[in-house]
Amino acid sequence: MALLQDNFPTFLQGFGYTLLSSLIALVGSMILGTGFAIMQIMPQKWVRKLGNIYVQIFRNIPLLVITFFFFLVVSKYVKMSGFTSGTIALMLYTSAFIAETVRAGILSIEGGQMEGARANGLTFGQAMQHIILPQAFRVALPSLGNQFINLVKNSSILAFVGGLDLMYQGNMIAANTFETFGTYMIVGVMYLIITLPLSYYIQHLERKLKQA
Amino acid sequence: MEKARKRQFGIIATIVLAAVIVLGLLWATATAKKNTAHQDTLARVEKLGRIVWGVKADTKLFGLMNTKTGVPEGFDVDIAKALTVQISKQTGVPLSAQFVPVSASSKMQLIKNTNIDGSVSTMTITPEREKIIDFTKPYFDAGQSILVKKDSGIQSVKDMNDAKYTIIVVVGTTAATEIAKFAPKAKVLAVQDYATGMQALKSGQGQAMSTDNAILYGFATENPAYHIAGGTFTHGPYGIAFDNHQGPMVRQANQALATIKKNGVYNQLIKKWFSDVPGLDWHSLEAK
Amino acid sequence: MVTIGIFSAFTPQNVMYLLGGLGVTVGVSLISVVLSLIFGSVVGIIQFERLPYFSKFVGTINNVIRNLPLLLIIFFVYFALPKIGIHLPIFWATVVAMSTFESAMLAEIVRGGLESIDIGQFEGARANGLSNVQTMIYIVLPQAYKKMIPPIISQLISLVKDTSLAMGIVLSEMTYRGQIVYAQNSTYIIPVLAVITLVYFILNYGLSLVARWADRKLA
């Protein structure tokens, strides 16, 4: 308990940065992910291919490698801090998973709806925006929630690049106090404060969706 | 009937699992207390016939991984080998040396956890660390410096006391805590290891990397565009570290260290690793 | 500068060293996926069976583990467990951390797989005189596993990627070894990162093709 008292501002700062990074990456990856999901179902073959290549690349390489790439290589040309490189990497990595989730959501919507909307004079974009996407998101909501939980957990990657997040601060405190057991326990509880309620809410949503 | 049996099983299983967890926690806290009184390192080493040394794997001159053999090479590694031979002679027990790569941030934990017996890993002797682990007498003289780009115009650490500068350090090093005293206004970026730190410096994540001059010399040799600015601003010799209350092991190591300093082995190693470093007066490092 | 790096970074010894790292990565992933399949199945079945109190209890523990960052579990197993007398060598510490985390993930998959099986089959099997346990082992589990092959393979892909996190405790896997190689000379960084990325991609993309093939075959 003394450990928590002595280092409370540090833990709190880490908690804040973890939350901030997760939220930025969430918004970014939702936009990117939806974009790449739509690309993958466009009528043009080459656009579909392009979207697919993006998704496959970012799904299949470790987040850590992407993070190092931004932190050590890209930053030679464009200045960016550890926090920024980590958050960008997190955003790109998660967007590939969100693209898959949203695409599955779109595909689960009955095909006739698109045709119906087009027949009523809506463009592809309009039909997407007003008819298909709102339904797709509702179907995909639980999986999107799970992706957000993963995102919060994965934000611990910032610890590798001095990203000031919860894991980073935890490591610093553990290195200074040698109280590894207590420090990592506290860090764990702080992560659970974000992820556990979300997780239970998603389970609740899933159950409701199944009943409907 | 079926339902009642299920219920019965559920309750019993819950109680058993809860009991296991509670007992496990009790046992864990008990061992945690008992573990503060550690076993004797020297006794363990003699029994197993080997000393497991923690050494660096990413630090030029002191411990850098040889990708062919998978064993790190450097001054620290050679010192550990020489000490093992010498301790073996002193105790009359045949001992072999094994090496485990450690990072700046993991070395203390590994000693405390007895994953390694001792550590020769560019470790500065500090009063804070001495409370938790045991050190031998100093085996290498070092002090903290900064490595900067030659054309940066930065002359010393004092020039960096400005919020526009970022200084790169490695988690768990003395430099990480000391730098705040010498450039309190500068931002500090802590990374997990030196290899990342040097890369981060080169890609402009910070304007300087700060750690012991001896380590920075290794990076300056390889990167001619960088140099050490303003000499050392702290004095902190390296010691060989063991877990605390390891009197017998520390005595053996100190005796071995004194012997290799006297018989010339130490000076040979200094010459082997430091005579080619530009800008370093390696004779000043020799044992007198 | 970069072109020099490409040729001199990949000396035979550096290549062998990196390949050794790949071996460690694959080894950790394979052992972990087998262990977590076993533990994950047990936990998943317990949750599926809805035993009063017990299933809820186990489910809660499972949820806690599932919602922690893997990196934290790795640090905890390697740096904190020794405080209570549990010393694991680095390779096994990684395996234990990853298996714990993946078991919790797989338990959810197993539970989902079981719930997707038609309840009529349970009743039918029981009507034919099979006991609860027999029904589970001979009728339900084989079908559930068949459905679970694609998600299990995607967990294996996660494991391969996540093994890179263990460089935080200096496990000598591929990403860590890459770093050792570019510590020799900093012009190596771009070629080394590029090659590591490519190796991960080929390995994981290959696995995802297997998953897709299995999905089509079993559907």
Automatic annotation (TrEMBL), chain A:
This is Amino acid ABC transporter permease. The keyword Transport applies. Residues 15-202 form the ABC transmembrane type-1 domain. PANTHER family: GLUTAMINE ABC TRANSPORTER PERMEASE PROTEIN GLNM-RELATED, MEMBRANE COMPONENT OF AMINO ACID ABC TRANSPORTER. Pfam families: BPD_transp_1. GO terms for molecular function: transmembrane transporter activity. One of its GO terms (biological process) is amino acid transport. GO terms for cellular component: ATP-binding cassette (ABC) transporter complex. Belongs to the binding-protein-dependent transport system permease family. Its main location: membrane. It comes from Leuconostoc holzapfelii. Keywords: Amino-acid transport, Cell membrane, Membrane, Transmembrane, Transmembrane helix, Transport. It is found in: Cell membrane. It is a multi-pass membrane protein. The chain crosses the membrane at residues 20-41, 53-74, 80-99, 157-175, 181-202. Gene3D superfamilies: MetI-like. The lineage of its organism: Bacteria, Bacillati, Bacillota, Bacilli, Lactobacillales. CDD domains: TM_PBP2.
UniProtKB/TrEMBL annotation, chain B:
The keyword Transport applies. Pfam families: SBP_bac_3. One of its GO terms (cellular component) is outer membrane-bounded periplasmic space. This is Glutamine ABC transporter substrate-binding protein. InterPro entries: Bact_solute-bind_prot3, Iontro_rcpt_C, Solute-binding_3/MltF_N. Keywords: Signal, Transport. One of its GO terms (molecular function) is ligand-gated monoatomic ion channel activity. SUPFAM superfamilies: Periplasmic binding protein-like II. Residues 50-276 form the Ionotropic glutamate receptor C-terminal domain. It comes from Leuconostoc holzapfelii. One of its GO terms (biological process) is amino acid transport. Residues 50-277 form the Solute-binding protein family 3/N-terminal domain. Belongs to the bacterial solute-binding protein 3 family.
From TrEMBL, chain C:
Gene3D superfamilies: MetI-like (1.10.3720.10). Keywords: Cell membrane, Membrane, Transmembrane, Transmembrane helix, Transport. One of its GO terms (molecular function) is transmembrane transporter activity. It is a multi-pass membrane protein. Pfam families: BPD_transp_1 (PF00528). Residues 22-211 form the ABC transmembrane type-1 domain. It is found in: Cell membrane. GO terms for cellular component: ATP-binding cassette (ABC) transporter complex. PROSITE patterns: ABC_TM1. InterPro entries: AA_ABC_transptr_permease_3TM (IPR010065), ArtM/GltK/GlnP/TcyL/YhdX-like (IPR043429), MetI-like (IPR000515), MetI-like_sf (IPR035906). Its main location: membrane. The keyword Transport applies. The chain crosses the membrane at residues 15-43, 64-81, 188-207. The keyword Zinc-finger does not apply. GO terms for biological process: amino acid transport. Belongs to the binding-protein-dependent transport system permease family. NCBIfam families: HEQRo_perm_3TM. This is Amino acid ABC transporter permease. The lineage of its organism: Bacteria, Bacillati, Bacillota, Bacilli, Lactobacillales.
